[in-house]
Structures are given as C-alpha cells and as structure tokens.
Amino acid sequence: xxDVSNPTRAEAPRLPQPRxxxxxxxxxxxxxxxxxxxxxxxxxxxxxxxxxxxxxxxxKADGRxxxxxxxxxxxxxxxxxxxxxxxxxxxxxxxxxxAGFDLWARRIAxxxxxxxxxxxxxxxxxxxxxxxxxSLTEREIVFLDEVARIxxxxxxxxxxxxxxxxxxxxxxPCEVLGIPPGTPLEVARARWRELVRENHPDRAQxxxxxxxxIRLAEARTRxxxxxxxxYRTQYRD
Length: 237
Fold this sequence. Notes:
By secondary structure, this protein is mainly α. The chain is built from twelve helices and no strands.
C-alpha cells in the first residue's frame, strides 16, 4: 500500500516547476499569497504530485486501472516530456489502491479558496478520467462527490458536470442546458447559444488559457451541443 500521508518522501520524486496547466496554478498561487511574482517551489511540487496521485486514484476507484483512463489523464494533465518518467513513478505508487484519496484532495483544496476555478477544472478532469472507459461506477461517484465536497464545489455544478460527461447517469439534456423540462424550444435554443458562447474553446484560447483548459472547454462544448440536439429532437417528438 502506498504511503499517502507523506507525498514528499524519498520515493516520490521531485518534479521541476511545470508549464501549461501547472503554470496557471502557479499564477493563481502567486495571487493568493499577496501577488508575489514567484511561488515557493515546494508548493508547486506538492500540487503537481497531489494531482497526479488523485488522478491515479480515480482511475483505480472502480477496482482496476483501465488503459483508457491512463490515456485520459495524460491528455488532460500534461506533464513535461522530460519529467514523464518521474510522473509515472508517482502515478504508479498512487494507483496501487484508492485509500487516502481524500488526503490528496485536502492538500489541493488547502491551496485555494472553496470552489476556485482551478479546483473546478481539476474536478472536471477527474470526471473525464473516470468516464474514459465509458462507464461511471458507484465507487467512482462516491469518490468524485467526496472530492467535490472537499473542494467546496456546489452540488448543482457537480450534477451539471456529470451530466456533460455521463449521458447514461439518468440526467436528461435539460440538466446539461440548465433548463426545466418542457422549456419552449426558442428559450432552450437561446440558452444553448449562451452556453456555447461561454464555454467555446476559442474564448479560452483568446484569454490565453493553457491547452488543458482548452481541452476541457472542447469537452464542455461538445456535451452542450449534444444535449441541445437531443432536447430538440425530444421536443419535436
């Protein structure tokens, strides 16, 4: 069993200051500690290792680590190529079992205010990993709900997130669109267009967000479009 109580022990390799998604984290941390230009290296390392461990444990939550889940982690949480071997060591240690995932979640949560956009992005990334094998088990739901609670993410936001990525979870397209059942088609269309504008990848790119955030925006937009097509078909039927 891996030791989740002390992620900075010798067996957990130090990772250098990351880029992309990780640089965004550093910027957020700098703002939170008074606008300093740099963040203490140990804090960025702690976050990096915690996210890798949490991603490994959600992959293990259903009892096995599917190849698709590992691939999903690599797509969302990009690791510099020079550090992939070290990151893989952390991932392999953490995925031995799911025990202690809440400790890693608390480590991440302690770095940001409740429901901070960074925490929401991490939670959505975990949903994408869990859904990579095309199913969401009860164990994974319990895992994700507990992480959401620790992160301070509103249950309504979690439900909408899950509806975007788990169409078989019993959540109708109106939950993705944020509209009540029976909403007139023109009202639903207006809401769909609003959500697409808010979540479109081009907007994320225009704001200079990293590739990881753009990939999440692509997933959100795809789910919103699919929900609209389903709702429009159901409404006409």
